[in-house]
Design a protein that fits this description.
Organism: Streptomyces kurssanovii
Number of domains: 2
Order of helices and strands: HHHEEEHHEHHEEHEEEEHHHEHEH
Structural class: alpha+beta
Strand order of the largest sheet: 10-9-4-6-5-11
Largest sheet: 6 strands, mixed
Pfam families: RepSA
Shape: globular
Distance between the termini: 45 Å
Protein name: Replication initiator protein RepSA
InterPro entries: RepSA, RepSA_streptomyces
Number of strands: 12
């Protein structure tokens, strides 16, 4: 009962409205509350869990003996809740957390086959920005925007066009649409630049060095995409081996600057209809900062990088005022009262879609034209989501083997149906408190590990 009251106390401390509080008490007082809480905890506190109904049955193939039986008939409300797995923090912050694989490539993680020695490899945190498409409201160092206003940090005008009539909305969404190709060209050119500085051919470079990276995309307030990336130099076997002595942070930094500036790292979007030919390249604001294992006050730390990436990886176009799901028609913009600036960007996508049919601008209008993955990495930077899923699958298979024996002699039958998703208002409040507890435990464990590593260093 103590655990139940603790969960309720945490939820009620959030200042709930009477109707939600009544629902919290209803859920907490139900006979199946402990099992419901266990289901939600297993989802990590997912804010929009998938509901399933069904059953599974394991039988011995030889004797026909029933080895295990499970049915959702015994679950609260007759349903099993599983995590939604959504990457967007606007949909589910807790599930979005699982998409952070950048830290493993920064600090190492033996459970993911990334040695701690990657901390000794040259590493930089790089930000590649979009070019200008027209002046926007901002907060410059001098504090006064071009419009003559000192905008507060939460001013909704920030990032919007100073002159909506002349701003290049079409250019913005076309840049977003081609940003992934620009990144590919950049990484290709980067390897060439490093090889040139070492006096090696690209084939020879592969025998002594690998360029690894993990990147995330972020929408600026003006709706243009830019990329944050950890770029690391490894030996020929990637994180398991050290790079040659000549491969330094200075060489990496110089090569990045040269790769961004090179004409190869550009894309020309052809003219179509009334739209002119547009050459795109990265913006002039290039930021490159060395990553240190532990803070000494001079460079960015891997803890700070991991924190930045966690924030960027779960943001999407809705941070600009756009939508977090696909747009069926223009009428939706009126129904959802989309602000003028993101609305113009969305409409630019819809207007351009017939001119560039291969770019699928209409389908990605809610993403302001961006159609790439928000978090990507080179093959050997760190582990993959697929590998993590396989580890979990293998773990579950091992559990099944311990309970059921040889899988070749076991017949498993199952039937599952989708039965809805989400929480009631009270369940949402309780799930949020569970998610906060899980996050607090993670942060406490991470801080303890960082303190221990600091003492060892």
């Amino acid at each position: 009962m103590g655990c139940r009251s603790s969960t309720v106390d945490t939820a009620t401390a959030a200042g709930l409205d009477p109707a939600t509080l009544d629902d919290v008490l209803r859920v907490a007082g139900s006979p199946g509350f402990d099992r419901w809480k266990d289901q939600v905890h297993r989802t990590g506190g997912c804010s929009d869990p998938i509901h399933l109904t069904g059953w599974t049955l394991a039988k011995d193939r030889t004797t026909g003996e029933t080895l295990r039986r499970y049915s959702t008939d015994t679950e609260p409300d007759g349903r099993l809740r599983v995590a939604c797995g959504n990457r967007r923090a606007s949909r589910c912050p807790t599930c979005a957390y699982t998409y952070h694989l950048i830290r493993a490539g920064l600090a190492g993680d033996e459970s993911k086959d990334i040695p701690a020695t990657v901390r000794d490899h040259p590493r930089v945190f790089t930000t590649l920005t979009a070019p200008s498409f027209g002046p926007v409201h901002n907060r410059p160092d001098r504090g006064v925007c071009r419009c003559g206003t000192r905008h507060p940090e939460d001013d909704q005008a920030l990032g919007t066009a100073l002159d909506p009539a002349t701003y290049d909305y079409a250019g913005t969404v076309l840049f977003n649409n081609h940003a992934g190709q620009l990144w590919q060209r950049f990484t290709t050119r980067l390897r060439r630049e490093i090889a040139a500085r070492a006096g090696l051919s690209q084939r020879e470079l592969k025998d002594v060095l690998r360029v690894s990276y993990g990147k995330v995309a972020e929408f600026q307030k003006r709706g243009a995409i830019h990329f944050h990336a950890v770029i690391r130099l490894d030996g020929p076997d990637s994180p398991d081996t050290a790079p040659p002595s000549w491969a330094t942070v200075a060489v990496l930094t110089d090569s990045i600057r040269a790769a961004v500036a090179h004409s190869y790292t550009s894309i020309a979007v052809p003219a179509a209809g009334d739209e002119p030919r547009r050459p795109f390249r990265w913006g002039s604001q290039l930021d490159i900062r060395p990553v240190k294992a532990f803070g000494d006050g001079t460079d960015i730390t891997e803890q700070a990088v991991a924190s930045y990436v966690a924030k960027y990886a779960t943001k999407a176009a809705e941070s600009t005022g756009s939508l977090d799901r696909r747009i069926g028609n223009r009428e939706v913009l009126d129904l959802l009262d989309v602000p003028d600036y993101p609305r113009r960007l969305i409409e630019a996508c819809l207007d351009l879609a017939p001119l560039y049919p291969d770019r699928k601008l209409g389908a990605w209008a809610h993403m302001l034209g961006f159609r790439g993955h928000f978090s990507t990495k080179s093959r050997r930077y760190s582990t993959t989501l697929g590998a993590l899923r396989q580890i979990r699958a293998d773990y579950r298979a091992a559990q099944e083997h311990d309970v059921l024996g040889d899988p070749d002699t076991v017949l498993v039958l199952a039937s599952w149906q989708y039965a809805g998703h989400g929480h009631t208002a009270g369940e949402s409040a309780l799930a949020a408190s569970i998610a906060r507890d899980i996050q607090l435990n993670r942060e406490t464990a991470r801080e303890a590990l960082a303190d221990l590593e600091g003492e060892r260093s």
